[in-house]
């Protein structure tokens, strides 16, 4: 059994060292175990902004522009989507489509436009989603030539006005309604978000990142080293005191060992001086 040293000074030092070490360990544990409340490095899974399903028409589209867009779709969709005339598709393409490809690529059939065998006579049944000054975002539903092989698609198209002409600036698929093979998988919606990074959200993950406390590891190591040194010295002192007591008990001595000669000489001189009158 380890006993405390008999020296009051040594016991006081060990007590203060133990108190300081306990406070340091408690502070480190609180800093490490409490989860971080800051934003996590990763995005929350399954969290996204609410879908914009309502029609958001800021400005009114004039009947003349409506007819021009009708004529644009009647020419662009057969030329580009059905790949009938890539040169006409290039002439009706807006700046964004042209920046994504080239005229030679268009002529080779390499268009940044979905390929679909449409079976429409015209495309006047489109629906405006957002009308701005000089641009319109619209949705148009297109039926296939062979409904048994491919389903109905819905395209989202942005048209922009360049001087007096309307051009197709962007087109992508937002819904694919395939023939029903399994009842649970009839419609699949997709769009640019399927090929881009997830949008930023105001919500953050409530779990702390494993690397949020990595910077504390060197601090913990330094504090552990500082705490280990006095504890090691105290343990060495306890071991030496215990060995000394065991040696004293084994020798059978009950009195204290004699003082060194230098101390005995000084004590005798003081006694002689004290005895003189």
Please give a structural write-up:
By secondary structure, this protein is α+β, with helices and mostly antiparallel strands. The protein contains 7 helices and 5 strands; from the N terminus they run αααααβββββαα. It has helices at residues 8-33, 63-81, 86-91, 95-99, 103-107, 216-251, 261-275, and strands spanning 127-132, 135-142, 152-162, 165-177, 187-189. It has a 5-stranded antiparallel β-sheet. Strand 3 (152-162) and strand 4 (165-177) form a beta hairpin. Helix 1 (8-33) packs antiparallel against helix 6. The radius of gyration is 43 Å and the shape is rod-shaped. The two termini are 54 Å apart. The model is unreliable at 41-55 and 193-208 (pLDDT under 50).
What is the number of beta strands? 5
Topology as a string of helices (H) and strands (E): HHHHHEEEEEHH
- Rg is 43 Å
Helix percentage? 40-55%
Largest sheet: 5 strands, antiparallel
Low-confidence regions: 41-55, 193-208
Overall mean pLDDT: 75
Overall morphology: rod-shaped
Count of helical segments?
7
Broad structural category = alpha+beta
Strand order of the largest sheet: 1-2-3-4-5
Task: Kindly report how far apart the N and C termini lie.
Answer: 54 Å
What fraction strand?
5-15%
Per-chain topology:
Layout: H1 8-33, H2 63-81, H3 86-91, H4 95-99, H5 103-107, E1 127-132, E2 135-142, E3 152-162, E4 165-177, E5 187-189, H6 216-251, H7 261-275
Antiparallel strand pairs: 1-2, 2-3, 3-4, 4-5
Helix pairs in contact: 1-6
